[in-house]
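pasting for ref
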Amino acid sequence: MTKSRQQANNLSGTPDEVEAAFYEALQSADIEKLIACWADDDDILCIHPGGPRVVGIGAIRAAFDAIFGHEGSIQVHPESIRRVDTLTAAVHSVLERIEVMTSEGPAKAYVLATNVFHKTPQGWRLVAHHASPGSQDEVQEINQFAQVWH
């Protein structure tokens, strides 16, 4: 059994726990721990900000290997998580605060991400991670709507 499959067997519980393991893996650049969070399904997908749709565990692994090889760990901190959970699926909308090093020193970047989890025979697993560029303005949510729609 591979190391990632052993770690996957240790993942159980809730979508929140798998999501926490995913972000911990990003912060430690641990590809095995990161891959263990994903479902064993040909149609899983990942979209990085401004990037193409990456489909399948091999392609997802290669994409994160490239990120870790170029940037190392990603200091990403999930904030303002909105959850829609059912018995077999969960969708989390996450504001990711990312600490980046610029020529002027440390700075913060923001990404809006959607994480989709399915309950599999192995427990909850990530089936989609879609991230888009965000801004600090996303910290303030729009939760009121206009009375007139057109």
